[in-house]
């Protein structure tokens, strides 16, 4: 995807600036030293940098441009097991009540009800919404298409927002001032941050936190893991399982309900 290409270009440029050697002269030790030069980054970010270098040098080797792959013996650092910081039902309600404009409320409701990634919502157009089926098609990671669904509440606030619009811009969410244009990913992120601060929430709230909230609350409410996996666009069920953080009450209820006595 375009985003992946830009990220690869950025990371390879950073690598080229720091490791000033001819490509064929770069060693495993050079790459280790380069990766050690980011002590402030978390292991997942270091793993991302290594992944791009592995793709690059792996391709050079398979095309026989290089005789050997200097990244072949390098293993990614262990990922930190961090649970997604989903909002509670009370915190979600606080976020809703802190919205001051139709656009703010529509953004919160659409991000939560669909469980979409930030990039997926940002790319949506008005014509993409099917009001009959209360759904739309989005393009996720790897340009894979999937169908996501809206709640009655989300559609109500989305329609309310669209009725305030006087522009011809096809984008679902646009800037508030002229010239009207599609709201950028950073613009959507900023909007959610402002609403969360207004709500007095101590957690860091982002569009991805609303995606976590959708997954966690839906699973806690009894949804099938496979269904949530499909709605989130996860290739592996293991990724979806991270969200299955059952409350103590839910664990107790499950034990009482399913234990064969």
- Quantity of strands, as a count: 2
- Order of strands in the sheet with the most strands? 1-2
Secondary-structure element pattern, one letter each? HHHHHHEEHHHHHH
Q: What value does the average pLDDT take?
A: 89
- Poorly predicted ranges: none
The biggest sheet amounts to: 2 strands, antiparallel
The number of helical runs is 12
Secondary structure layout plus pairing:
Blueprint: H1 2-18, H2 28-36, H3 43-62, H4 89-97, H5 102-114, H6 118-122, E1 135-139, E2 145-149, H7 152-163, H8 185-199, H9 207-220, H10 225-232, H11 237-241, H12 248-258
Antiparallel strand pairs: 1-2
Describe the fold and architecture:
The chain is mainly alpha-helical and 261 residues long. It has helices spanning 2-18, 28-36, 43-62, 89-97, 102-114, 118-122, 152-163, 185-199, 207-220, 225-232, 237-241, 248-258; strands at residues 135-139, 145-149. It has a two-stranded antiparallel sheet with strand order 1-2.
Keywords for this structure?
261 residues; two-stranded antiparallel sheet; 12 helices; 2 strands; globular
Short description:
With 261 residues, this protein is mainly α. The chain is built from 12 helices and 2 strands; from the N terminus they run ααααααββαααααα.
């Amino acid at each position: 995807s375009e985003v992946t290409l830009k990220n690869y270009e950025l990371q390879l440029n950073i690598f080229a600036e720091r490791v000033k050697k001819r490509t064929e002269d770069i060693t495993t030790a050079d790459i280790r030293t380069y990766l050690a030069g980011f002590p402030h980054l978390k292991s997942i970010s270091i793993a991302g940098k290594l992944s791009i270098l592995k793709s690059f040098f792996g391709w050079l080797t398979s095309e026989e441009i290089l005789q050997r792959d200097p990244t072949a013996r390098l293993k990614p650092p262990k990922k930190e097991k961090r649970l997604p910081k989903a909002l509670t039902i009370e915190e979600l309600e606080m976020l809703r009540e802190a919205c001051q404009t139709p656009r703010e409320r529509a953004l919160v409701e659409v991000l939560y009800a669909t469980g979409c990634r930030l990039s997926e919502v940002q790319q949506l157009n008005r014509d993409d919404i099917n009001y009959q089926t209360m759904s739309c098609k989005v393009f996720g990671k790897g340009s894979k298409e999937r169908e996501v669904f809206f709640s009655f509440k989300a559609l109500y606030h989305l329609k309310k927002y669209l009725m305030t619009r006087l522009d011809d811009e096809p984008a679902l969410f646009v800037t508030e001032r002229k010239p009207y244009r599609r709201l950028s990913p950073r613009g959507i992120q900023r909007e959610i941050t402002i609403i969360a601060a207004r709500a007095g929430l101590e957690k860091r709230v982002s569009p991805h936190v609303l995606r976590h909230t959708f997954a966690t609350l839906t699973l806690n409410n009894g949804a099938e893991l496979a269904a949530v996996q499909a709605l989130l666009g996860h290739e592996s069920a293991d990724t979806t399982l991270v969200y299955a953080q059952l409350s103590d009450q839910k664990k107790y209820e499950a034990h009482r309900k399913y234990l064969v006595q």
